[in-house]
Amino acid sequence: MSLRFSLGLLMIVVLTGCQRLVEPVMEAERWPVVSTTDGRKPAFEEMISLMEKARVVYLGEKHDNPHHHRMQRLILESLVARGRKPVIGFEFFSREETGLLLSFVQGNTSPMMPNRSADEEERALRRRLNWEHRPEWSDYFPLLALAKQKGLMVFGADLPTGVRSRMARVGLGKMVALEKRFLVKSTLENASYRLLMQEQFANSHCGMAGEGLLERLYQTWLARNEAMAESIVTMAGETPGEPVVVILGAGHTQYDMGVYERVAVRQPDWIQVNIGLREEGNSLQMPVREELAEVRRSFAPDHQYVWFTPVAEDPDKVDPCRMVKSK
Q: What number of other Cβ atoms are within 10 A of residue 319's Cβ?
C-alpha cells in the first residue's frame, strides 16, 4: 500500500508539472519553426530533444519582442521538466555582473538582512545592476526568477558596458592598458563578414556613420563576440553535460558567425544549436547594397532554425531614422 501510495503521489506531481506546460506548449506549436537546411518544420518536443543533446543553444532574439522572451522561458521550463539543469547566459549582463546574478539565484543574501521578501530581493538586484530605469527588466527578470526557483546556474556574458562604449567611441588605440585587460584579441580575419556587418551598422545608424565609426563598431563587435564565446566555454565547464542556453540578439549568431563561430574555434567538437526567433512576416536580414548580395549568399543561412513568433505590438514606437532625417 505504501509503495502504491508513493507511486501515485509521484504521478500526481509529474502530471501536475506537465499540465502546467500544456497550454504554453500548445501555443508554441502554433508558432512554426523551420530548419533552414532542409525546410522541415520540427515539432516543439523535437526541438527540445535537439537542445537536450546540444552543448550550446542560442536563442537569438529581437530584444523588444515580449513573445521572444515568453518562448525563451518556455524552452527553459521544458528542459527542466525533462530533468535537465541548463546554464543560462545573458548578453544583456556583463561578465563582471555574474557574481550579482549568482548571489540572487543561489540565495546568498546578506546576513544583515536575512528575512527580505522576494520583492525586496528583486529591487536590491535591480539597484545593484543599475537597471532601475531600464524597461527591459520586465523581459529578463522572469528568466532570473526561474533560475532561482529551479536552482539553475546563470552568468553575464558580455564585456563591461563602459569598455565596449569607449572602444566604439575612441577605438582600441586610444584605450588605456587597464581597459584592454578586459579584451580578448580576436583572430577572425574575414573580409566578407566585415563588409556585411559594417553595412548593417550603417543601416542601424540611419546611413550617417562614417568609415572611422564603422570600423570602430566592427572591432567592438568582434571584441564582444570573443568575450561572450569565452564566457560560454568557461561556464560550460561548471556543469559538464548540461546545455548552455544563451539569450542574445539574433545578429550575434547570424550566418553561423559571431559568437557561434568563435565558440566553434575554441571547441570544434561541440554540438551547437543556432535558433533565430523572428517576427512573422519580417526578415532578420537588413537590406544590403546590391553588390553585397552575392557576398551574403556565400554564408550560411541566418540561423540553423528560424522560429516565427507574432510581431511585437508597440503603437508608440517611433522610427528613429525618420526623426533624424526630418531635422
A: 10
